[in-house]
Write a structure and sequence with these properties.
217 residues; Dna Ligase, domain 1; D-amino Acid Aminotransferase, Chain A, domain 1; five-stranded antiparallel β-sheet
Length: 217
C-alpha cells in the first residue's frame, strides 16, 4: 500500500490496524472503531494483511459488523487493513518479467454476490472469467500500464497478478492488490491471461525458469 502510494498509484481509502489495537486494550478498541468510521466509513472491508484467497475478509456495513470483522481478521494476522468499499468491476492483469516486465491482456471476474469471497472463488459455477475483459481500449491500456508500475513499485520478480477496481461511473481505475504468487493451475487466471496474450502454458513455465535464472545469476 505504501509503495503504491509512493509511486502515485491510485487506491481506495485505507487504514492499517494491528492485532494489539483490536485485542490488547479494551479502552483502545472503541476509539479505533470511531477512527475507522470517521476516516473510512461504511461499507468497508476488513482484511488480514498477509493472506490470500479472501480468507478472513469480511464486509462491514455497521458498527457491530465492523467490530466482528476486526476480531475475526485479527485471528488470522497481526496486521490488518480496512478499506473503503466501492461499487466497481473487478479486473485483473498478469505481469511477467524482472526489470523489464510485460503485461498481459486484461481479464474480468464476473460473479453474483456481495463480494468476491472464498466460497465464490472456489465453488465451480459461481464466478466467470471474462478474457479479454469487455472494456474500452483506453481503460485496458491504462490497466496494463498501471500493472507494470505496481510490479516495479515493489521490485517484484518473475510473475505477479495485479487486481484492480474499475469504477465505471467515474472512469476511475484503482489498484486493489498485487499477488506475487498467483494461482498457477491450467484453469487459473494468471496462465489464462497469458494464453489469451499468445503465450502457452509450457512457454510461460519456460519463461519463468529463464527469469529465475536471470534474477539469481
Amino acid at each position: 500500500k505504501m509503495a503504491f502510494a509512493s509511486a502515485g498509484l491510485p487506491q481506495v481509502k485505507y487504514k492499517t490496524v494491528t492485532r494489539s489495537q483490536v485485542w490488547s486494550n479494551p479502552c483502545v478498541f472503541p476509539k479505533l472503531c470511531d477512527e475507522i468510521e470517521e476516516e473510512i466509513g461504511y461499507p468497508c472491508f476488513i482484511k488480514p494483511a498477509n493472506l490470500g484467497s479472501s480468507v478472513g475478509i469480511s464486509k462491514a456495513r455497521s458498527r457491530s459488523e465492523l467490530e466482528t470483522g476486526l476480531d475475526n481478521a485479527a485471528s488470522y494476522d497481526r496486521r490488518l487493513i480496512v478499506e473503503a468499499g466501492v461499487e466497481a468491476r473487478e479486473l485483473e492483469c498478469a505481469v511477467l518479467g524482472n526489470d523489464l516486465p510485460k503485461a498481459s491482456v486484461v481479464g474480468e471476474i464476473s460473479f453474483e454476490g456481495d463480494f468476491y469471497d472464498y466460497e465464490i472463488k472456489y465453488t465451480e459455477g459461481l464466478a466467470d472469467l471474462l478474457i479479454p475483459a469487455p472494456v474500452g481500449e483506453a481503460i485496458a491500456y491504462k490497466i496494463r500500464e498501471m500493472a507494470v508500475e505496481a510490479f516495479l513499485a515493489i521490485d517484484a520478480a518473475g510473475l505477479a497478478r495485479v487486481d484492480f477496481f474499475y469504477v465505471e461511473s467515474s472512469g476511475e481505475v484503482l489498484i486493489n492488490e498485487i499477488n506475487t504468487l498467483p494461482g498457477f493451475t491450467a484453469t487459473s487466471m494468471y496462465p489464462r491471461l497469458w494464453e489469451a496474450s499468445g503465450v502457452s502454458f509450457s512457454e510461460l513455465v519456460a519463461h519463468l525458469i529463464d527469469l529465475a535464472m536471470e534474477r539469481h545469476s
